[in-house]
Amino acid sequence: MTVKRRQEGWRYRGNVALRVLAGSVGAYLVMALTAALLARTLPMSRVEAVTTATMIAYLAAPAVTIWAFLARGPWRALAGVALVAGLLALGAWAAGQPA
């Protein structure tokens, strides 16, 4: 086995590892931030808002995981997840504490 072939193998494994990281940790992060944002902005009682926000946020996990493996490259997958997480965090921060 040549050195170049070994490097390609490690590069492939690294790409897959980055996608798995974006798809698992990123999905959890986006799901938590989605729940936080929706719980603060839904116009219903606090208990109902948190329950509804949590149920809706569960839809984000498969979407982020699919995105992580459909993106053109692993860095694009990480950048996409980071962008969405940043926007959700900004929205949750701007929404403030629930009343």
What does this structure look like?
- There is one protein chain.
- By secondary structure, the chain is mainly α.
- It has one domain.
- Helices cover 85% and strands 0% of the residues.
- It has 4 helices and no strands.
- The longest helix is centred in the N-terminal third of the chain and has 39 residues, at 3-41.
- The radius of gyration is 17 Å and the shape is elongated.
- The mean pLDDT is 91.
Give a concise summary:
With 99 residues, the protein is mainly alpha-helical.
Main sheet specs: none
Computed over alpha carbons, the radius of gyration is 17 Å
| Straight-line distance between termini | 64 Å
Share of β-strand residues: under 5%
**Residues in helices, as a percent range:** over 70%
Structural domain tally: 1
Shape: elongated
Helix and strand run:
HHHH
- Structural class of the secondary structure composition? mainly alpha
Low-pLDDT segments, ≥5 res: none
Compute the average pLDDT: 91
Count of helical regions: 4
How many beta-strand runs? 0
List keywords for this structure.
mainly alpha; 4 helices; 99 residues; single chain; elongated
Question: What topology emerges from the helices and strands here?
Answer:
Layout: H1 3-41, H2 46-57, H3 60-70, H4 74-95
